[in-house]
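Example record for the data management plan.
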Amino acid sequence: TLLTLLDGISNQGSVGLRDKIVVIGATNRPNALDEVLRRPG
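Corresponding structural encoding:
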């Protein structure tokens, strides 16, 4: 799943300042998303 892949990104070794990844998403149907993706934090 997407969340598993995103969690695995930080486990690939040390991350330097230039190796950051930002994921931005938008939807007009938030209830269609998995509850895990809608949680704060």
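Summary line stored alongside the record: Residues 28 and 38 are 13 Å apart (CA to CA).
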